[in-house]
Amino acid sequence: MPETSTPDSTGLPREAAYEPTERTVPSRARQRASYDHETVHSILDAAYLCHLGFVRNGAPVVLPTLFGRVGSRLYVHGSTGSRPLRLAGGSDPGLAVCLTVTHVDALVLARSAFHHSMNYRSVVVHGTARTVTDPEERRVALDAIVDQVVPGRSKDSRPADAKELAATAVIRLDLDEVSAKIRTGGPNDEPEDLALPHWAGIVPLARGYAAPVPSDDLDPSIAVPDYLASL
Description:
This protein is α+β, with helices and mostly antiparallel strands. It has one domain (30-209, 220-229): Electron Transport, Fmn-binding Protein, Chain A (Pnp Oxidase, Chain A). Helices cover 17% and strands 33% of the residues. Strands 1, 2, 3, 4, 5, 6, 7, 8, 9 and 10 form a 10-stranded antiparallel beta sheet that branches. Strand 2 and strand 3 (59-66) form a beta hairpin. The two termini are 36 Å apart.
């Protein structure tokens, strides 16, 4: 794995890259794949929703869930009774999973139906999820998940108490077998279709936030915090 001596904000080398594997090299559009830390981490850090896939009783299951990143690890939490969290702690090998994150940046409208597409940034992580039992790592993981949704929020909320922690399970997935894939640009119409009388181009999409709405029982003297107003 190539590395440089200058770390990024996570403490990992800026130009280090994840080693491609049979599972992380796409079968199509390989030129869109990327393995460098900076690209992978930027896509993960701009998201808070992932999809966690695993096999249960011989059938595939995919669950949408929140996640948090701490350096080269991803954390997912849930009820101690949830299926993937039970399975991850049920045996020494852990739970084989595939975790994905996707941002859709634009709809790509081509002159032909075949070439319609979308511009996107995605990350796919393969690995073995394991239950986190160390109390300090659990605390760091839970704070990271909260801050992944709204940066700075973990310091502005009550930490989980003993009862809540007992009902919460956390699993860890190391970023070892990872790839990013990115599409940008306009439609790839066939040369013979360029003269067709159909509009072609992209429709950009952007994630946005409306003004925060206070809870009905919130003390009116409590102002919207800066970290939330800045969203």
